[in-house]
Amino acid sequence: MNAPRYAPSAHHVLEHVFGYTAFRGEQQAIVEHLATGGDALVLMPTGGGKSLCYQIPALLREGTAIVVSPLIALMHDQVSALVEAGVAAAFLNSSLSLDEARAVERELFGGRLDLLYVAPERLLTPRFLDTLDELRDTRRLALFAIDEAHCVSQWGHDFRPEYLQLSILPERYPGIPRIALTATADRHTREEIARNLRLQEARRFVSSFDRPNIRYRMVDKADPRRQLLAFIREDHQGDAGIVYCLSRRKVEETAAWLVEQGVDALPYHAGMPTEERAANQTRFLREDGIVMVATIAFGMGIDKPDVRFVAHLDLPRSVEGYYQETGRAGRDGLPAQAWMAWGAADVVQQRRMIDESEGSEDFKRMARARLDALVGLVESTGCRRQHLLEYFGEASGPCGNCDNCLEPPRTWDATDAARKALSCVFRTGQRYGAGHLIDVLRGERSEKVVERGHEAVSTFGIGADVDDKTWRTLFRQLVARGLLTVDHERYGALALTDEARPLLRGEAGFTLRLSAEKRQRTKRRSTTLEIPAGIPTTLFDRLRAWRTDLARERNVPAYVIFHDATLREIALARPTSLSELAGVSGIGDRKLEAYGEAILEVVAGTT
């Protein structure tokens, strides 16, 4: 029987193994609850320190903790980071040879592993379940941690059917504590996780969803590639980032175009050859300054802390998806940006995909409701962060650091114009697109207007005081908010929906968010790494270079050695002794012993 390898104190493990002096948020309560045998369902934002919530109890409890993780890349990174910290951790997955897998099993049966990472598919095999039975019978099974627990939700795009079968764990291994963790789940998804994993009685820990280091920016689509390039060049030249696109073709075309513009970009989508996809992911994880252009196939479990921006060239499917994807930026707590270019055509495309999907009517209804919630976020004229947090049931005030707070949008009470537009759609038979309807509203006697006899309808010319561009913006937003729908089988004809009735009856208003004119950018809080005046940035640069060489030598991602945030603290503190270095956040006993002298040499060698 393997006894705990560390003193039975959560704070001792936190400080001496992981190098942190204090828990954040509800970490301590979660750790103590799990360590004493309780079950837990944890919702904590990406970068909030979810992994410590089960890694520390694993070191406090007797035996080996089994961590269920959905991705090989995530297992590799987390195990590498634990080994660097001096923790006995390993994984079992298809990347191992037969001999390597047997070596891990010998370590497991010998009681020499604190944590073992496995995919749900492997855990559920009869052979592995027999292994778990033996660990249970010999009191060497510490706990089960189910990471990325939203994979159990059939409503999400990360759904993994194997996760549903993890409900056997409490029946087969009663008394073994379980913790399920996710960064993204609305109330419906939380209930589904609890029900499907049989965690209804588990204590729930819901941390703040706020990521104050992320600045949210959303722009109207004009020339989205050029807009993206300007954003990267102005704010994130040389930074690591992720650009999400809806289609595989757009991923490849955007990545190739960015390379032509001098951006170090790579494509990633599920249709690529496995070897090429894996090679691109490895480069992104292990090199600095790579921009990954990807579909949503990329991202879950990506543990790279120094992603400085996440950009969307297409509208995500839901607020949950947007929150999860943007949460991959700034995991180290340093400034980062979430940037999106969107247009009403994105909303039309998403609604069409929902309508043509093979899902049940309940699924389609839920998908439409989630899309509508996202449209509400992008159309919001108030604080983005406040709106986002309210969606997850969290009250907050304006953040002062999103685009709407920094540059409040211009608005117009467009109630009268919107009623005229809807009336024109009705009077012309709900058979025409926006261009023709605008001609009618503005009183333009075009060939088509005359041919259809629309100069005689009551709405002809009633909108002559509104320019063409504003009418187009209004029609886009009427579609985006669901008051008009697009009939694709009739060449984009616009038709009224039931949601238009209150506005037509005078029971509702319509405020229009006007497209932002291109203007000189105001001075805003920096989203790049800042080192205060008087501290030589060359020291930070030299520390990063030293870390890069070491990571290449050890064949691990650079952030597994140290995060940028830790290097920044070293650059600020300029320690001259091991005792001073030990006080830097992120440096535990093992790393101090392994790298302390080398770090002090780098610091001493910088003038």
From TrEMBL:
Keyword Nucleus belongs to the record: no
Enzyme Commission number(s) from the entry: 5.6.2.4
Protein origin, superkingdom: Bacteria
GO biological process: DNA recombination; DNA repair; DNA replication; SOS response
Record keyword Metal-binding present: yes
Residue intervals of the HRDC domain: 533-607
InterPro entries cross-referenced by the UniProt entry: DEAD/DEAH_box_helicase_dom, DNA_helicase_ATP-dep_RecQ, DNA_helicase_ATP-dep_RecQ_bac, Helicase_ATP-bd, Helicase_C-like, HRDC-like_sf, HRDC_dom, HRDC_dom_sf
Pfam families: DEAD, Helicase_C, HRDC, RecQ_Zn_bind, RQC
Cofactor(s), names only, from the UniProt record: Mg(2+); Zn(2+)
Cellular component terms (Gene Ontology): bacterial nucleoid; cytoplasm; replisome
Enzyme category, top tier: isomerase
Residues annotated as domain Helicase ATP-binding: 31-203
GO MF terms held by the record: 3'-5' DNA helicase activity; ATP binding; DNA binding; four-way junction helicase activity; hydrolase activity; metal ion binding
SUPFAM superfamilies: HRDC-like, P-loop containing nucleoside triphosphate hydrolases
Annotated catalysed reactions: Couples ATP hydrolysis with the unwinding of duplex DNA by translocating in the 3'-5' direction
Annotated ranges, domain Helicase C-terminal: 224-374
Keywords: ATP-binding, DNA damage, DNA recombination, DNA repair, DNA-binding, Helicase, Hydrolase, Isomerase, Metal-binding, Nucleotide-binding, Zinc
Family indicated by similarity: Belongs to the helicase family. RecQ subfamily.
NCBIfam families in alphabetical order: recQ (TIGR01389), recQ_fam (TIGR00614)
Protein's name according to its UniProt entry: DNA helicase RecQ
Species whose genome carries this gene: Pseudothauera lacus
Highest classification ranks of the organism: Bacteria, Pseudomonadati, Pseudomonadota, Betaproteobacteria, Rhodocyclales
Gene behind the chain: recQ
